[in-house]
């Protein structure tokens, strides 16, 4: 069993601060539909680190911060300048800048590795991250940067919310959103540098993108999403860090991102909002609603044709082509909702059931008449379209159809519109 040394606590506390700050900035980018910006910045710091290493011939956190931030600012300025000139679309600019800057960084890194003292530099750890090398000074730097990010976010929360969700309104108020964009870029660059030691350059971008994406499946509010993203980010970071500390030669960055990926899969499958499970449940619920309305409409038509206030399950089976078990299940539901009386296979509409079934038939026949009169469709083209559309006609659309067609009494087949 792993013993929790003081260095382990430094690493976990750093992960907590990094998770909160990256989730705040990542959520802002996510809601502004600029998630790739964090990706570009995280990759573009590599050339700056390599240049700082070559100039000062050693690892120095301060000069790494200066060098990495400088190339990240340069990459951001390059994107904004070309975007203003409308040379290329934004997505092409982002992808091109990421590839070029990271490619230059890899070339410089290869050159460093060929130097007599380059192999011992350990600079390659900045690509994938290695939490076990995190010092107390690194932890303090991450904590300070994260506290600054959190303080700026809390103090400027209202302004940030307007800027993120209503840029046009912010512009109309002469809002200094250009300044906010500049601050965001600065914080992204500095935070990307701060996360190098624990997460790594290549995968720091995942800390900006994946937690807000996961949070979107659980919380839809801005603040709630940030809290959820912070929790998810710290959970994945803790798992990844523990794996890299317990199992030798496992880099921290990939371990964290793999953890985030598994959480993302769970969220996509079973999340509270817009998950595959919810979509499947909604689809089945909608299909069930259509079947119920189809049965209710068929009961009305059978009663209308017979002139009696009753029908039976066998006639309903012949009319709907549904299996008996399904008809019985739907009829039992209707009986619980007091729409019908269902005894010994006999079906009798209650006043509430008659009103509900009349409305479905009315919508069907109204739509057939609308298609016939306004779109001049032949009679054999009317029924199938009305079968589909009748389930989506709202009371407002129903009232509008009645008004424009002057409250008609007959459909195109000369049947009464109830």
From TrEMBL:
GO cellular component: ATP-binding cassette (ABC) transporter complex
Subcellular location: Cell membrane
Pfam families in the record: ABC-3 (PF00950), Fe_dep_repr_C (PF02742)
SUPFAM superfamilies cross-referenced by the UniProt entry: ABC transporter involved in vitamin B12 uptake, BtuC, Iron-dependent repressor protein, dimerization domain
Principal localisation: membrane
Swiss-Prot/TrEMBL keywords: Cell membrane, Membrane, Transmembrane, Transmembrane helix, Transport
Gene3D superfamilies registered for this protein in UniProt: ABC transporter involved in vitamin B12 uptake, BtuC, Winged helix-like DNA-binding domain superfamily/Winged helix DNA-binding domain
CDD domains assigned: TM_ABC_iron-siderophores_like
InterPro entries assigned: ABC_BtuC-like (IPR037294), ABC_TroCD (IPR001626), Fe_dep_repressor (IPR001367), Fe_dep_repressor_sf (IPR036421), Iron_dep_repressor (IPR022689), WH-like_DNA-bd_sf (IPR036388)
Signal peptide bounds: none
GO molecular function: DNA-binding transcription factor activity; protein dimerization activity; transition metal ion binding
This protein's record includes keyword Nuclease: no
SMART domains referenced in this protein's UniProt entry, alphabetically: HTH_DTXR
Ranges for domain Iron dependent repressor metal binding and dimerisation: 350-418
Family according to the record: Belongs to the ABC-3 integral membrane protein family.
Name of the protein described by the UniProt record: Manganese/zinc/iron transport system permease protein
Organism: Thermonema lapsum
